[in-house]
Amino acid sequence: MLNKNLEYWQNKLTRLPVLELSTDKARTNEGEYEIGIETFTFSEQLCLSLKALNQNCQNGLLKSLLAAFKCLLYKYTNQEDIIVGSYIRLPNNLDFNTLAFRSTISDNLCFNQLLEQVNQTVSEDLKHQDFSWQQLLKGLSTKDNHNHKSIFQVMFSLQDACVMDAPLPINVDDLQLDLSVFVVEAAEGLKGTFIYNQQLFEPQTIKRMINHFENLVSFVVDNPQTKVGEIAILSNAERHQILVEWNQTQLDYPHDKCIHQLFEEQVAKTPDALAVVFEQQQLTYRQLDNRANQLANYLQTLEIKPDDRVGICINRCLNMVVGILAILKAGAAYIPIDPNYPQERLSHMLDDSGISVLLTTEDLLPGLPQNKAKSICLDRDWQDLIAHHTQQSPESDVKPSNLAYIIYTSGSTGKSKGVMIEHHSLVNFTTTATKEYGINHRDRVLQFASISFDVAVEEMYPTLTNGATLILRTDEFLTNGERMLQKCDEWGITVLDLPTAYWHQLASDLATGEYLAPENLRLVIIGGEAVIPEKVRTWQKSFQNNQYPELINTYGPTEATVVVTRCKLSESINQDTQLAQMTIGKPFDNVKIYILDSDLNPVPIGVPGELHIGGLCLARGYLNRPQLTAQKFICDPFNPGMRIYKSGDLARFLPDGNIDFLGRIDHQVKIRGFRIELGEIETVLNQHPAVKQAIVIPQEYDTGDKRLIAYIVPQPTQSPTNKQLKQFLKTSLPEYMIPSGFVILEALPLTPNDKVDRKALPKPDKTNLNLEEEYLSARNDVEQKLVSLWEQAFGIHPIGIKDNFFSLGGNSLMATSMVAQIENLFGRKLTQAVFFQAPNIQQLADFIQEENVIESVIRINCHGNKLPLFIIANNGFLYQQMIDKLDIEQPVYIVQEPLDKAPDMASRCIQQIRDIQPQGPYNLMGHSYEGLVTYEIAQQLYLQNEQIAFLGMLDTPTPEVENRAEEARLLFKRYQRLKVVLGFSWKDKTSFFKERIEYRLNESFQPLMPTLTKFMNEYEVKPLPIKVNIFVATFEFYGLEDANFGWNKWTKEVEIHKIPGTHRSMLLKPENAQLVAEKLSACLNIKKK
Predict the structure, then answer these.
(1) Which residue ranges form the domains of the chain, and what is each CATH number?
(2) Could you read off the pLDDT of 921-931 as tens digits, one per residue?
(3) What is the dihedral of CA 738, 739, 742, 746, to 10 degrees?
(4) More confident call, 975 vs 795
């Protein structure tokens, strides 16, 4: 029955999801845990309502609460597959077992349907609760649950108050889950406790979650037929804060003006001020206005009217600015077209835009595709067609509701789409940018971006409407950072507006100390991609006496007129404090920001959702794309008659109202069934000292196998290897997030607006990609059968014949299951050790077909400059985690011998050891009864005049002490059961439950007990005048006054090393294995001669 129950759970808990609760603080690889506790009470009436909701069901209250809690988790994570752990008291027993309740949830599922699903699931699971949870854990691959302690990250338990003296059946310090909720029914209602990790969550976050839980429960008891997506969890106060208070951005602006009219007003104020400079040419405000008026008057002779579209395809020059202003003055909308675009894109833009006139230059005309527009060459045609027109401003009927420009952006279909921006949106943006950036007549602003991108709008209009000077860059700026800095200093640049990727590189260049920042630089505006926090620190350290320019991080899609939020990073970080979150700040004037779920409900503070934008900033829509416009610009659910834009960006509100940008929703990818956020990998890679810039994308191989590929721009003089980068990532990321290959590039390809062009990254091939393990499919029937076996066991598809058993998450229980199935498939009787000798399918298939014999010695690491360590063990998997944490220079061998009399086993082991190391000194180690074999090996080697450098025994008492300890265990079990009823302390309860489970758990071990007892009783300990090291599992209870396990009677010296855990978890639990490895390493201090 136990095996059937175990099989039930193994089948149910395959391909485990990780519950991605958003945290206030970043997870660390060390997994620090600092306990936090918040309590709550649900009223008696709410408790009665919950019971009534599920009154016809056994354990109805638990199931109602569990369904509500899972609904809350769905609201917080938007994950459909959710596992919640629970402590359940076994029938007719005071013991508890751990169960994992799994549910599938969606927006369209009604709560009563979810409740019915939970009812059925819990009832079925309870039928199979008599099993060993610890044994189940060993059989499930949890290696890929990065920084999570269990197969579930959240627990919910309802306890019986008449048995438990508090709602905590365990020692919470040992639990260390993200979140654990314990509820107990009391006379006054339900009393509960949220236990959480303060290294991840702030107390206010948990308090909000408790309020949301109560709101949800209160709602569903009255409205059980409501769809999950429509269930409200926010309080009215929270909803008002998020939707109204944080969007109180209304401010007056020149709502009756068009953008060119603001420019004309500035001309009247400062006609002789310098307006625009390009190389050795320049124009004052009056000159610029006069030339723009002449061209505008000419355009009006071509019957240009409001909302007509005029293209401008021109290289950077003074006439570029003249042409844009002229189109606006004529009443039309301008469409910037980059002459460097491919012919196909140019042709699409010219045809799709329907332009009637195209402004260009004679040198570019031959390279343009055929089109229907009238082409005007501003250099060739100026004297003949334009110069004789008046310099007075033309009259036009253009209004703030007319189009100002159309900018084409990339589309998912491969065809770019035109975004239509109206004058009132542009005027509102310009007015706000002027205020936020403090633009004034003393500023000299670098015009960096291509006019085909709306960053150029941010550079031009705040400058030319405030009397400042616009300096047009040259092309060499893109490739020569030193030249760019020199020129900016020479030109007296005060304001830079740069793509974030370019600024990252600039920060790195300045950090070398070889370049100096422009002396007059006061402000740097960045945007377009997420900011790397370390680059901010690097940037600030490049300036003396903390006199660094103000740094403003901006966010905004083209569809919302350039920028909608800003954050002054200089105020959120300084050189003496820890790096703060690089937020995108708060909304611009007359902009509304909503972060919503898929049902357009506002998500709680700290919870990710899709960022939606409303207000005066919104574009009219997409040119000639009404369906796409309707899809992306939707009705504002909070302001009837208004619209909001679905950005496709993932974000969350922070408690202070700032917005944390989390990346594109579509940057989440799935590789081999695992959901991966590419930005997380990129962030870690960018922290490598040899990496200047890194991008990670999924790539398809010819085999159809999708794998992650990292593209690396190294720091100057650095050449990081694949192995170095992988090892670095493995310190912070799980195996499934480690890229399969790394491509080293001199520079990342950029789009014309200097964003990383992910589509242009070279597809991996043999010249630029060196995969550590190339994917190979099965080549014969044996390999194919093994591939099928592995894919079923790991829940991963596809698996190649070179994929490593351990890298995939293989463990002892999986190995045991596999060798049994291999025997059924091929008639070969193997042991678990075969996976050390043949860890991939190719080697395993060869081993089977060639009928090789499993070696008695497993060579874990044959190299290194230290004295080898010989571990006596028939189960090498027990030591796997410990060995992984030893120094790479430490050779390790596992010696296996079948159970026999200790002297005979020792004699055979010595033969194996001497084949590898003929002479001492020797390092020896063993666990449990194998510790006695290790002691006997040391005894025989000593009598052979060999030196023993280290003798270590893990949880190995002498046979005499072991017999006394067994009697003590039986008495202690009865004592523990009595103390539970009498109110035993929580810490001792934890030890009790762990001790009870550990000694019942491994059915495969039980048949050996009589043999082991005989082995122990027959072994005669003899004196050995050397020092021994005893590693003691502190969670075990031996009832001993002898702290040395009896070894001080027989040896020269005993050193005790205390290790948290039980007899087996002292090696199986990662943090315990780490401690064993550290203490062991300190002992192994003799170098190989």
Answers:
(1) 2-233 (3.30.559.30), 672-760 (3.30.300.30), 781-849 (1.10.1200.10), 857-1083 (3.40.50.1820)
(2) 899 999 887 88
(3) -90
(4) 795
